[in-house]
Amino acid sequence: MPHRSIIDATLNQRSLELIREIGIPAMPAAVLEAWREMNAAEADFNRISRAVSRDPSLAAKVLLVANSSFYGRTMANVSIHQALVRLGIRGFHRHIIIAALRDAFRDEQEGSFATFRRIWSHLVLTARLAELVTLRLKEPVTPEHAYIAGLFHDGGIVILEKKFPGHLQAFAQQATDQAGQADMLAFDRKHLQTDHAQIGELMARSWLLPEEICLGIGHHHDLDFSRLENRNAVMLARILQLADRLASHVARLHNHEPLEFFQDDVGDSTAMAWATPLLEQHPWNRLHLSDLQEMCAAVMAEFDPEKVDEI
Length: 311
Known about the structure:
Layout: H1 4-22, H2 29-38, H3 45-53, H4 56-66, H5 80-108, H6 113-137, H7 143-152, H8 155-163, H9 167-177, H10 184-192, H11 196-206, H12 211-218, H13 231-253, H14 275-278, H15 289-302
Helix pairs in contact: 2-3, 2-5, 3-5, 4-5, 5-7, 6-7, 6-13, 6-15, 7-12, 7-13, 8-11, 11-12, 12-13, 13-15
């Protein structure tokens, strides 16, 4: 079998080729300008507000997100500046990213709304659960980084679906045929000579996300992290793995087909049998099954699948 570094180099080359062919959804100029101002030594709220307001479409979408019960906020009839003051820098940045990323992904889907809706639901669920897991663990990884990583983590699927329509459905069929035991990353590599995690990492880099987020996205399917030196990225990748599974669990409780496929709890939508051995391992041994159930219940209370397309 070829050495892992050779495999990675081949995948990286194929990923870059595909990115050149397809193109990565670009970060809007207004988001980039606002992001730079937010990271200034002394962030100026007026400059941030003006940057976002220069893009009326983005500004309108940010306010819609801020006022959407789907995202846990009700801020009717506020201006961009008022939303920034109420949400703070981090909260406002989250809303900008949600609005811009959703718009970019929806544009990429070229009419396949059902597929987009399913992917976007999974991304939002994973983001929120990653945030809650991080809050419980009290790791150096920030809840904000966990949330943004969750929003981006399967973005590569959206990009690959544009280039190869039906790829996700083909994987779903294989998962059904193999009783839920299919490996999505292996499926990507076999049929496309790249994978959605690497494509997602490249997109995160193009949006100038922090290094630990980019690496966490690129490695969120890994089992061996021995070659990844950034320990926050390792922790973030592991948080994404757990949040992924919890998002699938919540999707089943809502009677929606999850984006990921797992055999061990398909038989009973209320079961979390896979969690028992997981909670015996570090760092998850700091959590209890009741913690996971509480997090899922909290997200269930927030999440209305009928509102996922309201923004």
